[in-house]
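[audit] Reproducing an earlier prediction to check determinism. Same input, same settings, fresh worker. If the tokens differ from the archived copy the diff job will pick it up downstream; this log only records the rerun itself.
[audit] input (280 residues):
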Amino acid sequence: MKYRNLGKWGLKVSEIALGSWMTEVKNTEAADAAKKSIRSAYDLGVNFFDCADAYSGGEAEVFLGKVLKEFERSSFVVSSKVFFPTGNGVNDRGLSRKHIIEQVDKSLKNLQVDYLDMYFCHRYDESTPLEETLQTISDLVAQGKVLYYGVSEWTPVQVTEAMNVIKEMGLRPMSVIQPQYHMLDRYIEDEMIEICRKHGLGIVPFSPLSQGLLTGKYRKGHSIPEGSRATHQADRQINNLLTEDNLNKVEQLMEVAAGLNISLSVLALAWCSKIPRLAA
């Protein structure tokens, strides 16, 4: 396994991370497979494990924490995120100081750690001033509950505005962004990569396999595989990707992968790894 610095910062993360978005913990067989995946990834040198407070209603954090407890804390990097609803209350969502403070303590408890290596604002919150959100995260860094922080799926304008607020208020610096990025969605190449280069931000993209589309499991003219996320994912994001254009591209990419004697998933991850600032 190779490792990269998180942007200009000292933290080193494995080029390949393991995410917990689709962790299934209710089915015993699926849970056993998830445990095996985490342990195998760790044994192969993966040190970066990504999660969020909203994944599987919070159960993904609890599950990941139980497995990571088997390893030395200093040997792995774990992240979580805050924004999406975690309850029915009006303050059980967003990026207010109240919600962030409550959720970071819950995430620490769920993951059975004293600090988060990375903490992300999962989306942009139009209802909360940037000053409030960024001051709160900066305070968490000062308290040692969070080591590095960043944002996920913020626009170039939003990231730039955040960097200006951080500078004006003298807050702890932002270190990383987590955008969606893969061969079929390259929007960050327009502006975001240059913004990250300018400010020394690391990039740890999610869905480098396009939610499974770039594994070859979804094929043109074939039925959707039983048990795949396209059959059970609550918001059915993957289904929106199963367009004729994308499926045609998958067929072409599978030919390229076959010519290299590798799988499409390996091709997709290798393609992402060619961008120096990225760790997928």
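[audit] rerun output stored. Observation attached for the diff report: The first strand starts at residue 3 and ends at 5.
[audit] end
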